[in-house]
Amino acid sequence: MAVKEIKHPLVQHKLGLMREQGISSKNFRALASEIGSLLTYEATRDLESESVEITGWQDTPITIQQLKGKKITIVPILRAGLGMLDGVMQLIPSARVSVVGLYRNEESLQPVAYFDKVVKDVEDRTALIVDPMLATGGTLIATIDLLKQKGCKHIMGLFLVAAPEGIEAVTTAHPDVDIYTASIDEKLNDQGYILPGLGDAGDKLFGTR
Ligand SMILES: O=P(O)(O)OC[C@H]1O[C@H](OP(=O)(O)OP(=O)(O)O)[C@H](O)[C@@H]1O
Ligand SMILES: O=c1cc[nH]c(=O)[nH]1
Ligand SMILES: [Mg+2]
């Protein structure tokens, strides 16, 4: 498993703004989407392309590069993953979307699954999971379990902030999955929140705090 922390100045600037106490939902949503785009740009850097011949504007054959092989399905994890979806889709507008719903029980911190609608041909696609927070890793592990049960073979994940504890858990359970994050933060607190983190990303995105 590769874990890539994206140190690009635009990513770091935008993430810094998201950490400010009292940020409005409007600004939090805009920044989550923008970082979603930037992480997508990095995560798709190594996608394979191939040469294809087409007819150019002078009515002569020319060779262009096209993405090769497997197509992508974006997998936002409800609710908070929806906050990054627009930004990801701006770069991959034709991707199919597979929505999964899980929330974390606030006491046990265990993931509770309540919805999934995954594309039928997921075994032929790369799954690009999107969720702002990778905390204990329970939600991500459960999502990867579900995608693999449905036959998915190639999985990547995009996260605004990840905790070392969660990365360790996911690396152990699913060593084949690639993680892209804007920041590997310090640690989890006793309630399973990431420090310094963003607070409750879902509540901030949807104004339910
Ligand atoms: O790594 P974990 O410890 O499993 O925690 C991470 C999960 O917690 C948050 O969702 P939450 O349960 O708050 O649901 P929400 O998106 O509906 O707010 C977050 O968006 C992740 O899905
Ligand atoms: O810090 C955290 C951890 C889990 N979920 C969040 O929204 N924030
Ligand atoms: Mg939440």
Automatic annotation (TrEMBL):
<keyword id="KW-0328">Glycosyltransferase</keyword>
<comment type="pathway">
    <text>Pyrimidine metabolism; UMP biosynthesis via salvage pathway; UMP from uracil: step 1/1.</text>
</comment>
<keyword id="KW-0021">Allosteric enzyme</keyword>
<comment type="function">
    <text>Catalyzes the conversion of uracil and 5-phospho-alpha-D-ribose 1-diphosphate (PRPP) to UMP and diphosphate.</text>
</comment>
<feature type="binding site">
    <location>
        <position position="194"/>
    </location>
    <ligand>
        <name>uracil</name>
    </ligand>
</feature>
<dbReference type="InterPro" id="IPR034332">
    <property type="entry name" value="Upp_B"/>
</dbReference>
<dbReference type="InterPro" id="IPR029057">
    <property type="entry name" value="PRTase-like"/>
</dbReference>
<dbReference type="GO" id="GO:0000287">
    <property type="term" value="F:magnesium ion binding"/>
</dbReference>
<feature type="binding site">
    <location>
        <begin position="199"/>
        <end position="201"/>
    </location>
    <ligand>
        <name>uracil</name>
    </ligand>
</feature>
<dbReference type="Pfam" id="PF14681">
    <property type="entry name" value="UPRTase"/>
</dbReference>
<feature type="binding site">
    <location>
        <position position="79"/>
    </location>
    <ligand>
        <name>5-phospho-alpha-D-ribose 1-diphosphate</name>
    </ligand>
</feature>
<dbReference type="GO" id="GO:0006223">
    <property type="term" value="P:uracil salvage"/>
</dbReference>
<feature type="domain" description="Phosphoribosyltransferase">
    <location>
        <begin position="7"/>
        <end position="208"/>
    </location>
</feature>
<keyword id="KW-0808">Transferase</keyword>
<dbReference type="InterPro" id="IPR000836">
    <property type="entry name" value="PRTase_dom"/>
</dbReference>
<dbReference type="GO" id="GO:0005737">
    <property type="term" value="C:cytoplasm"/>
</dbReference>
<feature type="binding site">
    <location>
        <position position="104"/>
    </location>
    <ligand>
        <name>5-phospho-alpha-D-ribose 1-diphosphate</name>
    </ligand>
</feature>
<keyword id="KW-0460">Magnesium</keyword>
<dbReference type="GO" id="GO:0005525">
    <property type="term" value="F:GTP binding"/>
</dbReference>
<dbReference type="GO" id="GO:0004845">
    <property type="term" value="F:uracil phosphoribosyltransferase activity"/>
</dbReference>
<keyword id="KW-0547">Nucleotide-binding</keyword>
<feature type="binding site">
    <location>
        <position position="200"/>
    </location>
    <ligand>
        <name>5-phospho-alpha-D-ribose 1-diphosphate</name>
    </ligand>
</feature>
<feature type="binding site">
    <location>
        <begin position="131"/>
        <end position="139"/>
    </location>
    <ligand>
        <name>5-phospho-alpha-D-ribose 1-diphosphate</name>
    </ligand>
</feature>
<protein>
    <recommendedName>
        <fullName>Uracil phosphoribosyltransferase</fullName>
        <ecNumber>2.4.2.9</ecNumber>
    </recommendedName>
</protein>
<dbReference type="GO" id="GO:0044206">
    <property type="term" value="P:UMP salvage"/>
</dbReference>
<comment type="similarity">
    <text>Belongs to the UPRTase family.</text>
</comment>
<dbReference type="InterPro" id="IPR050054">
    <property type="entry name" value="UPRTase/APRTase"/>
</dbReference>
<dbReference type="InterPro" id="IPR005765">
    <property type="entry name" value="UPRT"/>
</dbReference>
<keyword id="KW-0342">GTP-binding</keyword>
